[in-house]
Amino acid sequence: MRLLDVGCGPGGLTRALVDVVGAENVSAVDPSEPFAETCRERVPGADVRVAAAEELPFHDGSFDAALAQLVVNFMTDAERGVGEMKRVVIRGGTVAACTWDYADGMTMLRAFWDAAREVAPEDAAKVDEGVTMRYSNSAELTDLWRAVGLDDVEVGELWVSADYEDFDDLWAPFPSGLAPSGAFCASLDSARQETLRLAYSRRLGDPQGPFSLDARAWYAVGRA
Ligand SMILES: C[S@@+](CC[C@H](N)C(=O)[O-])C[C@H]1O[C@@H](n2cnc3c(N)ncnc32)[C@H](O)[C@@H]1O
After folding, report:
1. Which of 14, 217, 224 has the alpha carbon at shortest distance from 97?
2. Beta strands 89-100 and 3-6: pairing type?
3. CA 173 to centroid of ligand 1, rounded, Å
4. Who's near 49: CB < 8 A, 6+ residues apart?
5. Over the stretch 195-210, which tens digit does the pLDDT of each residue have?
6. At what angle do helices 107-119 and 179-186 cross, to 10 degrees?
7. How far, in Å, CA of 82 to CA of 37, rounded?
8. Ligand 1 centre from 70 Cα, in Å?
9. Long-range contacts of 183-192 (CB under 8 A, 24+ apart)
10. Cα–Cα distances in angstroms (integers) from residue 125 to residues 84, 130, 193, 200, in the given order
11. Rg of the chain taking only CA atoms, in angstroms
């Protein structure tokens, strides 16, 4: 099979696809040059290009399947992006994606935003990903897959779990400003960051030592 990873980031899914079909059968794109470069280094031999989903640099019917892991909600024009994924797969090929359930099942971010809304209600409400992120539930994904004309649409949930050494292990990246949650954290002065840290820890049951958090993603699969 020829497989395409759309919005590959640093290449977690690309690596998994290569393990299944070999690097010579895998292409990957990401609009971020640094992410594409990291993916190239991590997955030698795969065809990694800088491009957005909305304008995929491939001919019609180039792949057996196109996949996008945790990307559809970031697309500028998701209908066009998923439409492009459909265009570049063969007739009967697979178009699949998953997105975090930001509003509910993604515990790490849900607890963060609930704590943020406690500390700075008005500012946090504007950037809470449970509100701002589209296509992060089964109904919206189903509508999107049908809107681009995919057949045999199937939608469901995936559960994963991440382990942390302790609460500080979880908290460490937030003040660096990475991702919308980190940007919100970094926008607070140090006293409010500390209030947020304590509220977040409390919402997770004040873990002492190692702990795990579950997260739900919604997936959609369809045939071109
Ligand atoms: C949360 S990361 C997921 C990365 C990777 N798929 C993974 O699962 O590790 C979201 C990725 O979507 C990419 N992205 C943002 N807008 C995009 C677009 N319009 N088309 C394709 N990728 C996009 C970002 O650059 C980023 O690498």
Report:
1. 217
2. unpaired
3. 19
4. 27, 28, 29, 36, 57
5. 999 999 999 999 999 9
6. 30
7. 24
8. 7
9. 183/127, 184/116, 184/123, 184/124, 184/127, 185/116, 187/123, 188/119, 188/120, 192/119, 192/120
10. 33, 9, 17, 16
11. 19
Length of the chain, in residues: 224
Degrees (nearest 5) of the Cα angle 171, 68, 143?
Answer: 105
- Cβ atoms of 61 and 38 within 8 Å: the answer is no
Which tokens belong to 191? 């006293």
Task: Tell me the CA–centroid distance for residue 4 and ligand 1, in Å.
Answer: 13
**pTM over 0.90, yes/no:** yes
Cα 100 to ligand 1 centre (Å) = 13
* pLDDT at residue 4 is higher than 90: yes
Question: In the 8-state DSSP scheme, what is residue 78?
Answer: H
Query: 114-173, pLDDT tens digit by residue?
Result: 999 999 999 999 999 999 999 999 999 999 999 999 999 999 999 999 999 999 999 999
- Which position has the token pair 């993604």? 106
- Residues with beta carbon inside 6 Å of ligand 1? 6-9, 12-13, 30-32, 35, 52-54, 69-71, 74-76, 81
Please state, in angstroms and rounded to a whole number, the distance separating the CA atoms of residues 196 and 188. Answer: 9
Task: Please report which residue ranges of the chain form alpha helices under DSSP H.
Answer: 12-21, 33-42, 78-88, 107-119, 121-127, 129-132, 138-147, 167-171, 179-186, 190-203
49-105 tens-digit pLDDT: 999 999 999 999 999 999 999 999 999 999 999 999 999 999 999 999 999 999 999
